[in-house]
Amino acid sequence: MARKKGPAQKGPAQTPPKNAAAPAAGEKTAVEKTVPALPGGTNVAHPPTFTEFLAKDVTCKVGDNVMLPPTTMRVRPGENVAILGENGAGKTTFLRVLSGNLEPSGGTVTRDGQPVDERDPATRRIISSLIGPIAGFRDMTIADHLILVDQTWGGDRGGAGDRIAAVLNRLDILSLANRYLSEVSSGQRQLAELAMALLRPSALLVLDEPEQRLDAGRRAMLAEVLDERRKQGSSIVWVCHDPVMAESVATRIEHFPQGGRRVSQDGSA
Ligand SMILES: Nc1ncnc2c1ncn2[C@@H]1O[C@H](COP(=O)(O)OP(=O)(O)OP(=O)(O)O)[C@@H](O)[C@H]1O
């Protein structure tokens, strides 16, 4: 199909036309006028915060197939909520609904009374999620991906190297920084994707089975990292198939039974 002709095909958007007047001090450049404001940054004066996420009676159906039976859960700052349950119980579907990636068939998800939608910059500023594998770029190294994430989320250029080295070092994959995603093992790739989710600022981490493909030692390391993150002020909601790991680090465990209505154990919903 022929692509519509437009300004984007005429050359790099950053190149101002010859003789174009430079923007006056304080005036937005052409790119800044076109590209929406970044959702957040590591160098913002006020880090992202929230008072509560509330998923109320959320359900998902496709035809007669119930992907998620009515579920209610409240998440507050500083909580680490681990969700356990059998295959097919709707755990991943719930994470997608909670993070505004999937619209529920019924019920609501709100953050401090506002609807949660991942396309909304206010939501993107608060939630960092890793639900399913990321596609990635074939010709970009792990470090390149991390630079992209860091700069997209407003990190200052000068500090990017240190931030990226720190997260890679914490996950014990600094030596893989210059590898391509296709050149690492499945467990190493899991850690690289976790690095991307951890690098950007957020107040709520939403992770689907982050322990998958990790050996026992690296699961223990991940538990420590999640605990550090919570102590730094972030909440975490994650699905886990390792009850021992969940017990070791979660402040609350939610069991998703097959079928049946679920109400958060915190009793407040
Ligand atoms: N796109 C889809 N269309 C229809 N049904 C789906 C779809 N995706 C998932 N399901 C169904 O929804 C239900 C919940 O799936 P979900 O992936 O949320 O389960 P889960 O608890 O995360 O399972 P697991 O532990 O195996 O990852 C399952 O019965 C699944 O077959």
UniProtKB/TrEMBL annotation:
Location of this chain's protein in the cell: Cell membrane
Residues covered by region (Disordered): 1-30
Protein topology in the membrane: Peripheral membrane protein
BP term (GO), one: response to antibiotic
Domain ABC transporter: 53-269
Main location: membrane
One GO CC annotation: plasma membrane
Keywords: Antibiotic resistance, ATP-binding, Nucleotide-binding, Transport
InterPro entries for the chain: AAA+_ATPase (IPR003593), ABC_transporter-like_ATP-bd (IPR003439), ABC_transporter-like_CS (IPR017871), ABC_transporter_ATP-binding (IPR050763), P-loop_NTPase (IPR027417)
GO terms for MF: ATP binding; ATP hydrolysis activity
Superkingdom in the source lineage: Bacteria
Family label: Belongs to the ABC transporter superfamily.
Name this protein carries in UniProt: ABC transporter
Provenance organism: Branchiibius hedensis
Upper taxonomic lineage: Bacteria, Bacillati, Actinomycetota, Actinomycetes, Micrococcales
